Structure to design on (818 residues):
């Protein structure tokens, strides 16, 4: 019954979505407030019905109802409860249901918290949002229904792919989806503005918080996914430039560009057309990502569904929304009035530069991800575009961006003083030079690239702090005064500092891990040792254990540093009889920001065990930096400016705020 | 600066960055892409030793031989041709005889494929797409994957 109940709720949600996609739009055209007001309640109701459908599927998983095909294929009665729950979205059908759940959640949030939106804008936004929901709910019902039954229910399920049975999977997809489906809101706002043919600074003030929210989740989701890959796959890599990763990274780059251009639009009423285009592109990239992941066109470590009919359906959705929105953009964008003049050297100019580099970097990722698919479709030739391609294209485009980044917040709006800003960044540059010198001395020669890369990371971090130091007068006035000033600074200024500082931290982690990482591979018998850096690992022996749905072969290692006991590491191999597959459970030992990383290979007939040991310096900074970026986003989101008051023209606001 | 000059400087910056991006992409595409080949392709295309390629197929039954210090030799086949592969290091969890595999590296002068990475990117119901296509081309597509899918589809149809 429960499955049918969920199915029915989903059909009702589709009906509501159809109403929501059409009636408010008509209302906005005919200026009928009653019809426009339909949007709010239907958005909330649509969310409720999709939530009921999702809850129903979850119930089927919790009760291990194997008469439902989806549960049979992806669950097992012996599976721990958390993986029964995460199994709901660990498969194609369920993850699409999560996708529409989050889509409707954002619609409902706009309906509930968008009380001070102009009625026409709100009606149009919710209608556009709902038209996306129509397409995807239809997709689920027609091609990927998770509620289908098997006539003769089997006694036991086929279990979830063991590699997905991990706490990381419980959190990663929902975070990621909150991010890239969240970008649908800025898309809907952009389309609504184009339909209405009206856009002003107030519009940017609405879009920015939503984009920021989506961006925060996307950042966390990508970081989480990266950490998950790092500890599950057992190769010690944290980013593979895998198409599935790129699918989430491209929207992140576009969303980052959008955050910055929306800032220009909000403060200076400039870059309107560009901001609209970016909002469309960001969500289009999310849709392309969904297509790449969900259609099975990829050869990828993320092996999910493979079914061509679904691919064609998503491709049709893709063409409809991306093609439609770009066509609308081409028709309507010339009507939007451009405003806000600025000199090339100014805050606006810096943000334009930021956008140029981010979008170009995003384009190179796009080419690297889709070129192999296009080439194969056209010529049948198969190629792989891997890390060397992305390092050679993405890297050089990001370096100038990082060098320019500290300049941005220090430049004045309209017309900036490049020389003056450069003088203020002398401190940051000095720190960078010291870092270069220290690293160079430590390395004692070696490639010059490493000290300079570390120097760049320190420059980015110090540069991010420069603005705060300047504005509080930290080094010039008494500390108490500076502290009081710091408290008085707008949260958005703190937000930018944190986000930029976080990027520097991540950069430092990336350089440390890629340049100084050590690897040892050995075959050990119990009683033997191996060493890496100053750590000695003694192999004590193996034990076998029985888990809830797997058998585990765990190896015990005692870790000593200069002979002193530090801890134990227990990497393991798990074999899952229900699928006949094995997974490698790596053992991690955190030392400061660095980690020891130990994973097992196959046991040999002679009793020895192949092990792979890494020393990963500063590796934790990669994800820690992402968390700092998200804290920055949260600070910026909590800025008073974004919470208070009805939309006001930005110009009067700009006049009131002190010169920056 | 006049309005026109400002606009020109913006357009100039944009074109500069785009030109840089295009140049980087073209350069990288020339240097760093790797072509995928089936064992038949390797033989028929006369791929030169030292060229970086990917070879994909099934690990031939009974061909895996393990030497000292994690050296491994095995043969990759697409049913028509077979290529010997040498690799040193840990093999992925899913590496097994008779299963699909993709190896990246280059041929040496003796015709052995020296792999520096071995990927076995599949689970019980998933075969690397490249490998599946290569096998289909040779008429050796006998994996039970499609029959399983068929069974699932029947389950759905009921």
């Amino acid at each position: 019954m429960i499955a049918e109940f969920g199915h029915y709720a989903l059909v009702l949600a589709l009906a509501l979505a159809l109403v929501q996609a059409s009636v408010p739009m008509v209302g906005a055209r005919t200026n009928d407030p009653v019809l426009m007001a339909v949007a709010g309640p239907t958005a909330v109701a649509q969310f409720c019905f999709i939530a009921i459908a999702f809850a129903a599927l979850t119930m089927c998983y919790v009760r291990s109802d194997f008469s439902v095909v989806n549960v049979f294929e992806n669950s097992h009665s012996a599976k721990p409860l958390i993986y029964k729950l995460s199994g709901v979205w660990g498969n194609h059908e369920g993850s699409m249901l999560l996708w529409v759940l989050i889509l409707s959640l954002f619609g409902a949030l706009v309906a509930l918290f968008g009380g001070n939106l102009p009625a026409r804008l709100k009606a149009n936004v919710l209608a556009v949002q709902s038209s996306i929901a129509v397409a995807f709910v239809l997709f689920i019902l027609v091609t990927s229904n998770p509620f289908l039954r098997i006539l003769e229910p089997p006694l036991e399920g086929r279990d979830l792919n063991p590699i997905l049975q991990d706490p990381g999977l419980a959190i990663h997809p929902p975070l990621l989806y909150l991010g890239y489906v969240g970008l649908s809101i800025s898309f809907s706002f952009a389309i609504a503005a184009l339909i209405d043919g009206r856009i002003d600074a107030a519009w940017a003030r609405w879009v920015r918080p939503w984009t920021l929210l989506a961006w925060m989740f996307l950042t966390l989701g990508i970081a989480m996914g990266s950490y998950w890959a790092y500890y599950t796959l057992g190769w010690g890599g944290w980013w593979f430039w895998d198409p599935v990763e790129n699918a989430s990274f491209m929207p992140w780059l576009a969303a980052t560009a959008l955050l910055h251009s929306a800032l220009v639009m909000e403060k200076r009423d400039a870059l309107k057309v560009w901001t609209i285009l970016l909002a469309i592109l960001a969500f289009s990239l999310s849709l392309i990502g969904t297509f790449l992941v969900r259609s099975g066109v990829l050869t990828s470590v993320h092996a999910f569904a493979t079914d061509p009919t679904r691919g064609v359906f998503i491709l049709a959705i893709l063409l409809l929304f991306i093609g439609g929105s770009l066509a609308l953009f081409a028709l309507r964008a010339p009507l939007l009035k451009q405003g806000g003049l600025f000199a090339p050297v100014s805050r606006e100019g810096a943000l334009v530069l930021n956008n140029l580099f981010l979008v170009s970097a995003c384009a190179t990722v796009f080419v690297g991800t889709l070129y192999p698919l296009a080439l194969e479709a056209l010529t049948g030739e198969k190629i792989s575009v891997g890390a060397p391609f992305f390092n050679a294209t993405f890297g050089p485009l990001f370096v100038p961006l990082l060098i320019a980044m500290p300049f941005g917040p220090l430049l004045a709006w309209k017309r900036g003083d490049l020389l003056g800003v450069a003088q203020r960044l002398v401190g940051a540059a000095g720190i960078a030079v010291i870092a270069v010198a220290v690293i160079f001395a430590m390395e004692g020669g070696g490639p010059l690239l490493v000290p300079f890369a570390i120097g760049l990371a320190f420059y980015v971090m110090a540069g991010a702090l420069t603005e705060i130091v300047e504005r509080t007068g930290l080094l010039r006035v008494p500390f108490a005064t500076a502290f009081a000033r710091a408290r008085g600074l707008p949260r958005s200024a703190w937000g930018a500092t944190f986000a930029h500082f976080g990027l520097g931290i991540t950069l430092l982690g990336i350089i440390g891990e890629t340049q100084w990482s050590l690897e040892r591979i050995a075959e050990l018998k119990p009683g033997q040792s191996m060493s890496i850096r100053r750590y000695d690992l003694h192999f004590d022996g193996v034990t076998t254990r029985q888990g809830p749905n797997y058998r585990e072969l765990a190896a015990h290692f005692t870790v000593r540093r200069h002979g002193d006991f530090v801890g134990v590491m227990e990497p393991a191999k798990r074999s899952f009889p229900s699928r006949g597959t094995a997974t490698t459970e790596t053992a991690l030992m955190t030392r400061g920001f660095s980690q020891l990383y130990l994973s097992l290979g196959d046991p040999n007939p002679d009793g020895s065990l192949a092990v792979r040991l890494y020393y990963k310096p500063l590796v934790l900074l990669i994800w820690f930096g992402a968390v700092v970026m998200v804290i920055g986003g949260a600070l910026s989101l909590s800025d008073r400016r974004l919470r208070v008051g009805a939309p006001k023209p930005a110009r009067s606001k700009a006049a009131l705020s002190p010169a920056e | 600066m006049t309005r026109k000059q400002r606009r020109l400087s913006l357009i100039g910056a944009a074109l500069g960055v785009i030109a840089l991006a295009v140049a980087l992409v073209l350069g990288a595409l020339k240097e760093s892409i790797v072509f995928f080949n089936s064992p038949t392709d390797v033989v028929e295309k006369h791929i030169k030793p030292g060229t970086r390629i990917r070879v994909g197929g099934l690990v031939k039954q009974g061909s895996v031989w393990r030497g000292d210090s994690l050296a491994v030799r095995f043969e990759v086949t697409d049913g028509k041709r077979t290529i010997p592969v040498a690799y040193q290091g840990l093999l992925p969890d899913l590496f097994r005889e008779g299963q699909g595999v993709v190896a990246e590296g280059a041929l040496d002068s003796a015709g052995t494929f020296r792999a520096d990475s071995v990927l076995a990117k599949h689970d019980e119901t998933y075969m690397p797409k490249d490998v599946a296509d290569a096998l289909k081309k040779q008429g050796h597509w006998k994996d039970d994957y499609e029959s399983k899918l068929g069974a699932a589809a029947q389950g759905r149809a009921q």
Remarks:
- The first strand of chain A starts at residue 383 and ends at 385.
- The two ends of chain A are 62 Å apart (CA to CA).
